[in-house]
Design goal:
- Its cofactor is AMP; FAD.
- It is found in: Mitochondrion matrix.
- InterPro entries: ETF_a/b_N, ETF_b, ETF_beta_N, Rossmann-like_a/b/a_fold.
- The protein has one domain: Rossmann fold (3-Layer(aba) Sandwich), CATH 3.40.50.
- The protein is globular.
- The strands form two sheets. A nine-stranded mixed sheet has the order 9-8-7-10-6-1-4-5-11, sandwiched between helices.
- Helices cover 27% and strands 27% of the residues.
- α2 crosses α5 and α3 crosses α4.
- With 263 residues, the chain is of the alpha/beta class.
- The chain contains seven helices and eleven strands.
């Protein structure tokens, strides 16, 4: 049976603006965090999530109705949304926070995503998001969204298949291999590195992205408090690495290790 417009799937992809993965991270002078006055870009795992949403639509043209991207962050985060729109997403939602607002924590971000889902008139069937952000590396937000919504979840996805019966088959990365799980929609999927390689946005699509809908909303309008509940006391760089030394044989290596108190 072919799906009708009423039961076509709606995909939401939360994305984050992070310090670019190629930038060498430095601690700021006050030691309260990292220096953010550097190049930023979309979190790489979220790029994979956007790409997978687009590929799902390409593979299942009769099943996917729309792809919306969502970000929670300062005004400059709009650039990240435009990148996702240029890749091929249909619409964007920006939960705008002040430029000087502290870094959001997983629970607050998850509550904001859940509140956005609740506001969507046509509903959301699949949330696809990166398994973690490369700045905080907590890897908790996707699971928290699933918990708050009472939805199924498939984390660390390396392949995703949409079934017409309202379920998803997802290969997930586990220690030493992979397992295939079936999850009923609505569901949350978090993406791993092996899932795909994101496409580049073409110049014509970058121009088209400027005309695609972008809705702004505040945390207050969502009824969400993004104030951190944890306080960072101090951030310091790891100790500088020192050069190694050469040994002539195994006995000398063991002696050196004993000298260092390692064995």
């Amino acid at each position: 049976m072919r799906p009708t417009p009423a039961n076509l799937l709606r995909v939401l992809v939360p994305i984050k603006r992070c310090v670019d993965y190629a930038v060498k991270i430095r601690v700021n002078p006050s030691q309260t965090g990292i220096d953010t006055n550097v190049k930023h870009s979309m979190n790489p795992f979220d790029e994979i999530a956007v790409e997978e949403a687009l590929r799902l639509r390409e593979r299942h043209k009769d099943l996917i109705k729309s792809i919306k991207v969502l970000t929670i962050g300062p005004p400059k985060s709009q650039e990240t949304l435009r990148t996702a729109l240029a890749m091929g997403a249909d619409e964007a939602i920006h939960v705008e926070t002040p430029a000087d607002a502290p870094h959001g924590e997983p629970l607050g971000i998850a509550k904001a995503i859940a509140a956005v889902i609740a506001r969507e008139k046509d509903g959301v069937d699949i949330v696809i998001m990166g398994k973690q952000a490369i700045d905080g590396d907590e890897g908790q937000t996707g699971q928290m969204v699933a918990g708050l919504m009472g939805w199924g979840q498939a984390t660390f996805a390396s392949s995703v298949t949409v079934n017409e019966g309202g379920t998803l088959n997802v290969n997930t990365e586990i220690d030493g291999g992979a397992e295939e799980v079936k999850v009923r929609m609505p569901a949350v999927i978090t993406t791993d590195l092996r899932l795909n390689t994101p496409r580049y946005a073409s110049l014509p699509n970058i121009m088209k992205a400027k005309k695609k809908p972008l809705t702004k909303v505040t945390p207050e309008e969502l009824g969400v408090d993004l104030k951190p509940i944890l306080e960072t006391i101090k951030v310091t760089e790891p100790p500088k690495r020192v050069g190694g030394g050469k040994v002539e044989n195994v006995d000398e290596l063991v002696a050196k290790l004993k000298e260092a108190g390692i064995v």
